[in-house]
Amino acid sequence: MGVYSRAPLAFERGEGSRLYTADGEAYLDCMAGIAVNALGHANPVLVDALKAQAEKLWHVSNIFKIPGQEALADRLTSISFADVVFFTNSGTEAIECAIKTARKHHWANGQPERIDIIGFEGSFHGRTIAAVNASGNPSYLEGFGPPLPGFVHLPFGDVELIRKAIGPTTAAIVVEPVQGEGGARAWTEAALCEIRQLCDETGVLLIYDEIQCGLGRTGKLFAYEWAEDAAPDIMALAKALGGGFPVGACLATVDAAKGMTVGSHGSTYGGNPLAMAVGLAAVDELIKPALMDHVNELAGYLNQQLTGLRERFPDVVVDIRGKGLLIGIKLATPNREFMQHARDEHLLIAGGGDNCVRLLPPLVLTQAEAREAIEKLERACERARTQAKAA
């Protein structure tokens, strides 16, 4: 189906932070499959884990115990707020599970009227029907029938409006601590703490969508850890969780998941042995303290250099946003054109809302590669300036 506006590029192989076309042209990858390949392409640890599992067992039904699920669930709960995990194939499925978990929690508490999910303008939670209804982008709903009941959208960043919006039918608030598609906008730590307090006061569950910003992307293992005492009740993960292999997870406290009893939810492929083997290997790499130190050092360098670019090219670069290695560059020139200028320099970057482009490099990007990315971005800015003057 013609649903993608594809760039005229095809890649044959990848290694670390590089992608290679069939004729051997190398591109510096600063989008990492949209924050997926957090450990780089063809990471040997992940390759070995996949090969070893592939020679043993690919798939069994979830009517049987799957030891890999138990191992990865134990790892995730040991490093997070959560008590229980449901494994999915994708981020949007993790969001579906989160919404169902929140609503079923209130049903189990004798409050079935509490179904409303409060979300925010600019948010993106996936492409299934419930996920696009939870997302704050009306264009994703166009042509797919009327909006579903039970979803409320508020402006980004206004905690007082959240307070006013909470009512007797509110089930949960779903927040990306750092918006990805919405233009790399980060909630302040104070705002996340206020939202957590609001939820505690009203019995509303707090859902974090850390599909893009989680698992080290912001410089801490989970983005919510930047805000003290702001842990969620439910959290959706994916992307970096498999390092490129399709896997997602919905994490929850045992209380939040009290309604998710036998038969409440399920998946054919979710939690399959291949995904669990790669996921466990990926998480064990991502939790290494040295990697988080590297992410924070790299993020500091990139933000400093990008601020310099903004000062040198104020007619091209308007603002630098985001957190850690989820970096947004708001542009004065069209972002799609700027992405092409970057590709002309053999640099891959992602688009974003609010006329932004995003840098989402592998977390293992080297200092030398970061310098190279800045040099390529500078030349892309020069191209954008020249094109704007010629227009």
**Helical proportion, percent range:** 25-40%
What's the mean pLDDT score? 97
How do the strands of the widest beta sheet line up side by side? 4-10-9-8-7-5-6
Rg value: 21 Å
Strand segment tally:
15
| Share in β-strands | 15-25%
Shape: globular
Report the uncertain regions. none
Task: State the secondary-structure class.
Answer: alpha/beta
H and E string: EEEHHHEHEHEHEHEEEHHEEHEEEH
Number of helices: 11
- What is the straight-line distance between the termini? 34 Å
Structure keywords:
alpha/beta, four-stranded mixed beta sheet, seven-stranded mixed beta sheet, 391 residues
Short account of what is shown:
The protein is α/β, with parallel strands linked by helices and 391 residues long. It contains 11 helices and 15 strands.
Describe the fold and architecture.
By secondary structure, the protein is α/β, with parallel strands linked by helices. The strands form three sheets. Strands 4-10-9-8-7-5-6 form a seven-stranded mixed beta sheet, with helices on both faces. It is built from eleven helices and 15 strands. Strand 7, helix 7 and strand 8 form a beta-alpha-beta unit. 50% of the residues are buried. The model has no long low-confidence stretch (mean pLDDT 97). Helix content is 37%, strand content 18%. The radius of gyration is 21 Å and the shape is globular.
